């Protein structure tokens, strides 16, 4: 397998940037993706990172991850994570996640967080449910936990007529253990409360006193 390198989108040439845009826009339906101009605007709290083949720098990108650092915490939220459809199935997703974890850990971040669609909100035989389950299994196999959070309801998700409900996933970022596993345990207690509050506040714009945030904390025993 080819060695890969994670680089900042802003440092790529125009050809590679156009290829990254194609990967992004072809991987997410319109309803689930932010405008391209927004994710490349260079927000000070966000990083758009791209995985390239180090041995074939002229090749199209392997995949991308857009992360947001949550306020003044050391927590980071993965907004988008995707591998080019033409390159899936070759361990590229694992390589992208491993490179992302290493980047976050090396830059002093303490926790990785993300959310995924809840498969229990889908019809049992639907392809969307199968996709949800595959996505959750991927993250679990790489050490990202489904967190003990109940009634997690960011804006536009989980209410009647809105997008499917979400699950919050995450893990502490620890140095690799002897078997090379890069992630730590799931946050619980005060650490989980901080994570939930930070995601709502700095990812979705909801104040800690917002009724939705209070309901999630209460239902989760936090």
Structure commentary:
- By secondary structure, this protein is α+β, with helices and mostly antiparallel strands.
- It folds into two domains: about 1-110, Aminopeptidase (3-Layer(aba) Sandwich), CATH 3.40.630; about 115-220, no CATH class.
- The protein has six helices and seven strands.
- The chain has helices at about 15-25, 35-40, 90-105, 125-140, 190-205, 210-220; strands at about 5-10, 45-55, 65-70, 75-85, 110-115, 145, 165-170.
Produce a short descriptive summary:
The chain is α+β, with helices and mostly antiparallel strands.
List keywords for this structure.
single chain, about 220 residues, Aminopeptidase, 2 domains, 7-stranded mixed sheet
- The percent range for helix content is 25-40%
Strand content: 15-25%
Biggest sheet descriptor: 7 strands, mixed
What's the arrangement of strands in the largest beta sheet?
A: 1-2-3-4-5-7-6
- Low-confidence regions: none
Topology:
Elements: E1 4-8, H1 14-27, H2 36-39, E2 46-53, E3 63-69, E4 75-83, H3 92-106, E5 111-117, H4 127-141, E6 145-146, E7 166-172, H5 189-203, H6 211-219
Parallel strand pairs: 4-5
Antiparallel strand pairs: 1-2, 2-3, 3-4, 5-7, 6-7
């Amino acid at each position: 397998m080819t060695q890969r390198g994670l680089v900042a989108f802003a440092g790529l040439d125009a050809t590679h940037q156009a290829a990254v845009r194609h990967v992004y826009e072809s991987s997410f339906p319109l309803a689930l993706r932010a405008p391209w101009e927004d994710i490349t605007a260079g927000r000070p709290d966000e990083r758009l990172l791209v995985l390239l083949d180090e041995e074939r720098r002229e090749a199209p990108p392997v995949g991308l991850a857009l992360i947001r650092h949550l306020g003044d915490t050391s927590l980071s939220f993965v907004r988008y994570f995707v591998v080019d459809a033409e390159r899936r199935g070759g361990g590229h997703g694992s390589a992208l996640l491993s490179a992302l974890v290493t980047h976050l850990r090396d830059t002093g971040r303490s926790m990785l967080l993300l959310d995924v669609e809840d498969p229990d909100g889908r019809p049992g035989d639907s392809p969307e449910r199968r996709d949800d389950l595959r996505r959750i299994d991927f993250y679990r196999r790489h050490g990202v936990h489904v967190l003990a959070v109940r009634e997690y309801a960011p804006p536009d998700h989980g209410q009647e007529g809105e997008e499917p409900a979400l699950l919050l996933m995450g893990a502490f970022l620890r140095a690799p253990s002897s078997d090379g596993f890069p992630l730590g345990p799931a946050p619980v207690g005060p650490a989980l409360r901080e994570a939930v509050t930070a995601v709502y506040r700095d990812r979705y714009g909801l104040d800690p006193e917002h009724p939705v945030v209070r309901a999630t904390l209460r239902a989760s025993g936090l």
